Amino acid sequence: MAPLPQISEAEYEVMKIVWKHSPISTNEITERLTADTDWSPKTVQTLIKRLVNKGALTYEKQSRVFVYTPLVKEQEYVNEESSSFLKRFYNGDITAMLSAYIEDDRLSESDIDSLRSLLSSRSRKGGR
């Protein structure tokens, strides 16, 4: 499997729009991002072009409009980035990461209850 392209935080914002609304035109991407950010249309177009060059997006010209679709699956990208984060900051030790979050009070009681529920259902299913 080919390595996933490196995507900046700004490019990731573009990808989230494309993953959610694909196929989507340049104008639609620009409208959505300029409504939620202080980016100019030119900035959005530059980010789209970078993503095409990196192999994260592809496009089709439909009459006078460019329509984009992702070449990278969202879940695949999120899984890769999560794994990379865990390895980089916690040596791949998810327990160390969760401990740090708990000790720094970054998890609410609701978050902890959700984690308990997930772990409980996972163990009932015979998780790893």
TrEMBL record:
Record keyword rRNA-binding present: no
Keyword annotations for this protein, in alphabetical order, are: DNA-binding, Transcription, Transcription regulation
What residue stretch is flagged as signal peptide? none
* Gene Ontology MF annotations: DNA binding
Alphabetical GO biological process terms: negative regulation of DNA-templated transcription
What does the similarity note say? Belongs to the BlaI transcriptional regulatory family.
Name the record gives this protein: BlaI/MecI/CopY family transcriptional regulator
